[in-house]
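Good morning,

Attaching, inline, the backbone tokens for the sequence recovery test we're adding to the shared suite. The designed sequence is right after.
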């Protein structure tokens, strides 16, 4: 059987994913040669799941969309990793009933907590699913970036509402149910018994600069994003916050 140590492909790093992949690669490198059991909650069409499977790990994707899971299955087959990728239909709020306790080494929970009914319940289910020493990669929308975006576009009332709302919403028409800052995200994970190890900003500049700028020198953009991602205050105005935590 192939193991992670026999695989050589590199994940498709872009300016929008560089900070996340940098953290994930460090976690994978902590256990060279070991095939990890990975759970991708809300993993959709497999943007992270398929590259992780190509690196030799087994990935289960839980997603509410049957269309997304169908696309995931095709993508995994095209990449030659169909046996390593498993699709399960369900949403984050039902996670506790979909995954066996203490069975997972690494959990990805990206763009999920802002839309579920009970984010604290999802994080508790994630903690239960992790093996001791297992880790979670959490990606959530940043409140500060949303405030600045609305203000820059002239929507001052919306920016003020979002700034003052306890959940970081910009009114009833907001498509997201909540947004986070580094402190609130860390507190949510800590309340479930997880220990936060790293917090990075994702898309610090990618959503602020014209496409022509970001595409002119992609490598320079990736390097600058990585340099800014861990440095407040730049980290804190990123479109998304990436929090990496571990179960003791």
């Amino acid at each position: 059987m192939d193991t992670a140590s026999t695989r050589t492909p590199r994940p498709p790093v872009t300016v929008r994913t560089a900070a996340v992949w940098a953290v994930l690669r460090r976690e994978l490198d902590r256990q060279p040669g070991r095939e990890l059991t990975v759970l991708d909650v809300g993993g959709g069409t497999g943007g992270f799941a398929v590259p992780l499977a190509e690196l030799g790990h087994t990935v289960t994707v839980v997603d509410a969309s049957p269309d997304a899971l169908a696309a995931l299955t095709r993508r995994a087959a095209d990449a030659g990793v169909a046996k390593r990728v498993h699709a399960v239909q369900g949403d984050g709020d039902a996670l506790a009933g979909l995954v066996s306790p203490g069975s997972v080494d690494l959990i990805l929970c990206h763009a999920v907590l802002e839309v579920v009914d009970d984010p604290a319940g999802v994080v508790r289910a994630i903690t239960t699913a992790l093996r001791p020493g297992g880790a979670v990669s959490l990606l959530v929308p940043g409140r500060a970036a949303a405030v600045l975006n609305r203000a820059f576009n002239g929507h001052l009332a919306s920016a003020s509402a979002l700034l003052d709302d306890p959940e970081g919403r910009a009114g009833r028409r907001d498509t997201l149910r909540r947004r986070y800052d580094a402190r609130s995200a860390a507190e949510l994970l800590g309340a479930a018994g997880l220990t936060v190890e790293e917090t990075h900003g994702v898309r610090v500049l990618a959503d602020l600069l014209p496409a022509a700028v970001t595409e002119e020198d992609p490598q320079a953009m990736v390097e600058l994003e990585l340099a800014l991602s861990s440095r407040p205050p730049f980290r804190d105005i990123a479109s998304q916050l990436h929090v990496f935590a571990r179960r003791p």
